[in-house]
Amino acid sequence: MPYVRFLNAVAKARRPSPIRQLTELLQKSPPTMISMATGMPNAEQFPFHEASFTLKDGNKVHISPSEMKNCLQYQATPGLPELRSWLKTMQKTIHNPPTWDLSGRPEQMDLMITTGSQHGMATVCDMLVTHGDKILTANPLYSGTIAIMKPLGAKFIDIKTDAHGIIPEHLSEVMSAWPDKEQPHHSDSVNIPKLLYCVPNGDNPTGAGLTYERKAKIYAIARRYNLLILEDDPYYFLQFNKPRGRSFLSMDVDGRVLRFDSFSKMLSAGIRVGFVTGPKALLEKVNYNLQASVLHTSAVSQMIVYKLLEHWGLEEFLRHTEEVSDFYQGRKDVLLAAANEHLQGLAEWHEPSGGMFFWLKLLGIKDSHDLIMNKAREKEVLFVPGSAFTAHKDEKSQYVRACYSLATDEQMFEGMRRLAELIKEHQGKL
Asked: What pLDDT, on the 0 to 100 scale, is given for residue 29?
């Protein structure tokens, strides 16, 4: 699959860093190699020696002196080899990408470590988005994605959504404005959208999740119009319906999916380790971008994650994800009960299929911004106004987002009661 159409001028101009290439070469060299090439500091002068972490079950994860010495040093940009290998095996086991075995082909699946999945998304957009590019997205849209794409000059084309996420029929209708690949006058000009962004599971802010049937239709449309799919899936393991739905990566026969995963919801939000999976030709450009910026994700963070995953193994890690998912499903059920008790006739909602968020449409209120940012604060309850999730200037929203990850049962019921009071006051019912 040709990828030149998707790259912007900056990505096309990037070249590998000779120093970074030598770092990777040194990692693969035998101990007898004499190197006076790389500008690595002498790790013997670092004050850290070893580390041990106690898990909640009482077991310990230990970073030995030699491992500590290694992770305190500069690393190859794609990530610690042992962690990348572990994660590739996991992706193969869970998603089984059709491009896994395309050895030597630009479409072959590869994987890189990033400083959280949002760092991966920002890096990819830096290399794909040109000012004026049309980006296909849901509306509402994750505010972090807006913050990444809008300054790059992206023009957002809204695709309608419902309780199950992006509606494929509307995506097809929108794309029908351009000729598809089978038509003789098709052209990959800059006027045609080239990127589709979506959060397929536990969408932030709506909590919606795409069904397999919808994903299959969306992927077919992407093939028809030669789109890349940016599959931003930090809530993959927080799906409440079992078995978990298949990913776009799992059906990607062309190498047109870039998938973004995160450990922020499963292991630690502060440890800042995520990973991008996709075609080798595009990840090579991600590599060049990171070589010129952060060099690599914190190797200490990577080592901590790797030692935990090595200790657990894939089966235990997946068991852990089930426990975390069950926890959030329980929190969702409490907030849903609180909304049913206090907001009937005052708001509308659908039940989240995953993630941590609850999307409420406030009836009789055209714009929730002032209500939430000012009046709700006076009642000591906070939500996020829906206007935070629109990419269009001055667009009003009657929605609010509630997060059920931290509040106690009592706080959720009281929070919904206070929100009900606010709505009634606004409607003149109190």
From this structure: 76
The total of other beta-carbon atoms located within 10 Å of residue 270's CB is 8
Q: Within a 10 A sphere around the Cβ of 135, how many other Cβ atoms?
A: 23
Query: 211 Cβ partners below 8 Å, 6+ apart?
Result: 164, 245
d(CA 233, CA 361): 24
Token readout for 423 is: 């709505």
Helix (H, G, I), strand (E, B) or coil at 392: coil
Smallest CA-to-CA distance from 423 within 364, 340, 337 is with 364
Q: Which two tokens stand for residue 254?
A: 């062309």
3-state SS assignment for residue 7: coil
Global model pTM greater than 0.85: yes
Per-residue pLDDT at 411: 97
Reading the block at residue 297, the tokens are: 């994700």
**Weakest-pLDDT range from 48-52, 392-396, 426-430:** 426-430
> Which residues have a Cβ under 8 Å from the Cβ of 11 and sit 6 or more positions away?
126, 127, 128, 285, 288, 289
Please answer whether residues 405 and 356 qualify as being in contact, where contact means their C-beta atoms are separated by less than 8 angstroms: yes
**pLDDT (tens digit, 9 = 90+) per residue, 158-195?**
999 999 999 999 999 999 999 887 766 666 666 899 99
Q: Give the span between the Cα atoms of 420 and 426, in whole angstroms.
A: 10
